[in-house]
Design goal:
The protein is α/β, with parallel strands linked by helices and 252 residues long. Helix content is 49%, strand content 13%. Helix 2 links the parallel strand 2 and strand 3. Helix 2 runs parallel beside helix 8 and helix 5 packs parallel to helix 6.
Length: 252
């Protein structure tokens, strides 16, 4: 019995050592793999473009909404504003901040955008909540709070939620963490999809529609192997613009 107990202790110690080594390796991989990308310093001042019926448009989100890893002028926020400006005079503001989580979008970002009483709001949030292990109910509650705040200042507001991109695709995240990140992406996006009512709140499924492409084509990531590059962001644009069109076509 004493010999058997010693073997069990040795096995447990060996497994623990392997887990520690794996954790150290993955932490080093995340920290050192790839080259950092610059955080774009964008203007948070309103701009007016286009012609036609006036609409006020606000963007809330994280580093993807400022096109980190790509080119801001070619990112989906600018593309969305230009898309709306084809048929409307758009006064728009981008309050997104790199590194933001759902609580930031619902807090400081929403607070800056609410005085504009926007007619259309685009919220792309969730990636940093995936990686920071924010509880899914907390993410949902934050976004629901933001939706409620915008609806309170403008009863006819249309809101597009894009949720998190597929965080199981960036090669900056090693396996098996990438597998877990993909699972958390689905959980968070399912929670956000439950907020969509098909009338004033529309979900844009960027993870479901582009995740498989990013997994198959790692060249769509920037030098940090985490953020999309310009070609990667380009894949999101038609999905978000289509959701904006759907939101505007349905009467409140």
């Amino acid at each position: 019995m004493r010999g058997g107990a010693r073997i069990v202790v040795i096995i447990i110690a060996a497994c623990t050592a392997l887990l520690v080594l794996l954790a150290a390796f993955e932490a080093a991989w995340i920290m050192w793999y790839g080259h950092p990308t610059v955080r774009p310093d964008i203007s948070h001042q309103p701009q007016t473009i286009g012609g036609g019926k006036a609409l006020t448009f606000a963007v809330l989100g994280d580093s993807t909404a400022v096109a980190q890893g790509g080119v801001y002028a070619e990112g989906y926020a600018v593309a969305a504003a230009n898309h709306l400006a084809k048929t409307h005079t758009i006064t728009w503001v981008n309050e997104a901040v790199s590194g933001a989580r759902a609580k930031d979008a619902a807090g400081s970002q929403a607070n800056r955008a609410l005085p504009y009483k926007p007619d259309v709001v685009l919220i792309v949030i969730g990636a940093n909540d995936v990686t920071h292990l924010t509880p899914v109910p907390e993410v949902r509650a934050s976004v629901a709070s933001a939706i409620g705040a915008f609806q309170q200042v403008n009863g006819g507001v249309r809101i597009v939620l894009a949720g998190s991109p597929d965080m199981g695709s960036p090669t900056r995240i090693p396996q098996p963490l990438r597998l877990l990140a993909g699972k958390r992406t689905r959980s968070i996006n399912n929670a956000l999809m439950s907020l969509a009512d098909g009338r004033q709140v529309v979900f844009a499924p960027i993870a479901a529609q582009t995740g498989p492409i990013f997994r198959a084509h790692p060249e769509l990531f920037a030098s940090d192997h985490f953020h999309p590059n310009a070609a990667g962001y380009k894949l999101w644009i038609p999905i978000i613009n289509s959701a904006l069109d759907k939101a505007l076509q349905v009467s409140p």
